[in-house]
Design brief:
Shape: globular
Distance between the termini: 49 Å
Strand content: under 5%
Strand order of the largest sheet: 1-2
Largest sheet: 2 strands, antiparallel
């Protein structure tokens, strides 16, 4: 069951990534995606490495403790959509959208934690996930906006 869910998540992530090119330029997608992948992999390695949460069923289990699909595909794709939907928003709008995306991601994580072996909280809660994803999404969104804005000038 878990492997089917993982492959389904890969298909959804790739599909959403390809669809994002209809909304944004290659530069915008690349910057948003890569900034988030870098930041998520850094924090994910710390959280999983410290044993705060665990991914019992995961791709590349022999090589890493973190969730490769989430940190290198799904979360970066979400970051692309955060950028796409908040490009013309003010600070409050950007923060509200980051909170909304973080809430949805946290909700999905809670469902996976309760009903699958894809993630297990050790010394972690959904509240930590929400706060971490909110601030990371906001930071990446603001940084991507600055980098893309500078590149356009």
């Amino acid at each position: 069951m878990e492997w089917l869910v993982l492959w389904l998540l890969v298909a959804i992530g790739i599909g959403l990534l390809l669809l994002s090119f209809r909304l944004l330029s290659l530069r915008e997608v690349s910057i948003s995606f890569l900034l988030n992948a870098y930041a998520a992999s850094f924090f994910g390695a710390i959280v999983a490495g410290a044993g705060l949460l665990e991914y019992p069923v995961r791709f590349l289990a022999a090589y890493t403790d973190n969730s490769v699909i989430f940190e290198y595909l799904l979360y970066p794709v979400v970051s692309v959509y955060v950028y796409a939907t908040s490009r013309r928003s003010g600070w409050l709008g950007v923060a509200a959208q980051c909170a909304g995306y973080a809430a949805v991601l946290t909700g999905v994580e809670v469902v996976f934690e309760r009903y699958t072996d894809l993630i297990e909280y050790r010394h972690w809660t959904w509240g930590y996930s929400f706060v971490t994803m909110f601030f990371l999404t906001l930071a990446v969104r603001l940084l991507a906006g600055r980098v893309i804005g500078k590149a356009e000038k």
